[in-house]
What we know:
With about 100 residues, the chain is mainly β. It has strands at about 10, 20-30, 30-35, 40-45, 55-60, 65, 70, 80, 80-85, 90-95. The chain is elongated.
Amino acid sequence: MAKIRRNDEVIVITGKDKGKRGRIVRVLDNDRVVVSGVNMVKRHTRANPQLGTAGGIVEKEASVHVSNVALANPATGKADRVGYKVLADNTKVRVFRSSGELIDG
Length: 105
C-alpha cells in the first residue's frame, strides 16, 4: 500500500516549488510522482504532420521525488505524515500521523 496515491492533495516541502499545492496526476514506479502545476518545464517539440501535432515550446509538469511532497491535511491545511492502521475487519487504511483520523474513508 502506497502512502501517496493518485488524486491525493499534496504540498511540496522542499525545492524550487516549496509551498505549492497540487493533486497527484501520476505515480511513477521509481519513487517519483507528477503533481499538477508543480515543477513545470519547457519541452521543445518538433511538428509532426502525420500525427497532427504542432511544433513549438510546450510547458508541462516534470516528476518530483515522493520524499519532496507531503499529504495535505484538510482539517489543518498543513502538510502531514501518513501512517497505517489495521481496522477491526482486518483492512489496512491510511491515517494522518498528527491526528490519527482516516484519510480514505
